Amino acid sequence: xxxxxxxxxxxxxxxxxxxxxxxxxxxxxxxxxxxxxxxxxxxxxxxxxxxxxxxxxxxxxxxxxxxxxxxxxxxxxxxxxxxxxxxxxxxxxxxxxxxxxxxxxxxxxxxxxxxxxxxxxxxxxxxxxxxxxxxx
Length: 136
Known about the structure:
With 136 residues, the protein is mainly α. It is 82% helix and 0% strand.
């Protein structure tokens, strides 16, 4: 298996990890009846599980020609964003830390998520422009 073909697997593996954390977190909230951090839980599921899985699907199905460095940067930005944003939201919503801690986490997380999505969007759109569909 080449390095190029491993990127979809890396995206799916990260997505699966976030999904496992998300469902356990949801179960814990249900058991404790403490839903103070539900927004962070939802962001983890959407940004971590759903978004990374969709990015992995794109790279597996249509993105074989995308340069490895683009996939690496996309993967890194997206994961940094998920980890920082969810940690910051958890600390903020659960009132478990001062703004001097959760503020920078949220800022780095949000900027990384946006940068990851902008890179991904540019990659998808430029691929369509460079390789128009062939009529059947």
